[in-house]
Design brief:
Number of helices: 7
Distance between the termini: 127 Å
Strand content: 25-35%
Largest sheet: 5 strands, antiparallel
Shape: elongated
Low-confidence stretches: 1-78
Amino acid sequence: PGSTRVVWTASDFWPVRSTVRTATRAVPPSRCSWAKPSKSRRKTRCSWACARAPGRWEAQGIRASRARATTPAQPHQRRRGGREIRTEARTSQEIERLRQYFEQAPLGYQSLDENGNFLAVNQAWLDIFGYSRDEVIGSNFSVFLVDEWKQHFLENFPRFKALGEILGVEFEMVRKDGSTIMVAFNGRIGRTAEGLFQQTHCLLRDISSERQAQEIVQKSHESILAILDGIPMDIYVADMQTYEILFANRHMEDSFGHSLVGLICYKAYRQSEHPCPHCTNDRLMDENGKPAGVF
C-alpha cells in the first residue's frame, strides 16, 4: 500500500521513472497485464489492471515522465547512425563511379532542356569542339550550328521530343576555332515518373572523315561515268543474277531513244522472254564466285 518508485528499463522502451499508486490487495503477477506505453513528446501514459474471480480489480492509472536517455539507449542510437553513414558513403561512391563513366566515355554526350539549352556535356564533347564547360552550359544548341542548319534544328527538335528517340540524325557544327564538322546523333528523351519531358540524352560522333571519304568516292564515280558517256559505242552494266540494267552510257541510250536503266537486258535489247543463248555471264565468274577476268 502507498506509493512505490519504479524504473522501467525494457530494451524496446525509452527509460522512464514512474510513480505508481498500487492496489490495496495483492494479486499474483501472472494475473496482471500491462499496456505498452506510448512514446509522446513529453509524457508517457500506461495502464495496468488485475483480476481475480469472481470480481475484477479496478484499473489503476500510471502517469510516467520520460527520464533522460540512459546508457543502454545510446549504443542503439550509435548503431543506427553508423548504418546511415555507411549508406551515405556507398551512395556517394556510386555517384562518383557514374560520374567517372560519364566523363571518360569515348563518345561525346550532351543533355538539353525542353528549350534546347545545354544542361550537361562530358569531356569528350568538350574535346571535340574545343569549348570550355562554362561556354556551353546554358547556351542553346543552335548557337553551335552552321547557319544553314539552325532552322533545321528549330523545326525538328519538337519532333524529337514527341517521338522520344532519334537515330543517326546529322548536323554540321562549328568548333571554337571556326572550323566545321559533321556529327551524327543518337538520342532519347528522359521523362519524369509522370511521363513528362525532363531532358534529352544524346551521344554524338564525328563523322567528318566518313563524309569526306564518301565525297571522294562520289567524285570518282562521277568521273568514271563521264568517261563512259564520252566513249562513242554502246556500254552498259547489268546485274548478273537478275539481268537488270544498272547503267547505260549516253551513246547507247541515244541509240535506243530512251533510258534503259531498270529494264531487263534481254527484253530491252532482243524483246525476248529468256536470257540470250550466247550470254557470257557464266564465263565471267569462276567456280568460287570470284571474277574470272576479262572475257
